[in-house]
Amino acid sequence: MKHIKTSLAIIALASSSAAFAAVSFDTFDTDGDGAISQKEASVNTQLVEIFSALDADGNGELSKEEFSKVQ
Ligand SMILES: [Ca+2]
Ligand SMILES: [Ca+2]
């Protein structure tokens, strides 16, 4: 069930990409280190929900490539 819920969250996020597009990777990466940390992601509730699903390598940060799955 958790997986399904996560998938739906990704779909919801992707379908709202018009609004989300304005909130780009660089917007989240406030310290400019090239990755979105959980703290940086915390400004967006939807991103927090799918953070672990997007973090494919499980290092606790979203690279530009990992983040691009929602765009
Ligand atoms: Ca960062
Ligand atoms: Ca990662």
Automatic annotation (TrEMBL):
Keywords: Signal. One of its GO terms (molecular function) is calcium ion binding. Residues 42-71 form the EF-hand domain. It comes from the Bacteria. PROSITE patterns: EF_HAND_1 (PS00018), EF_HAND_2 (PS50222). The keyword Signal applies. SUPFAM superfamilies: EF-hand (SSF47473). Residues 1-21 form the signal peptide. This is Calmodulin. The lineage of its organism: Bacteria, Pseudomonadati, Pseudomonadota, Gammaproteobacteria, Alteromonadales.
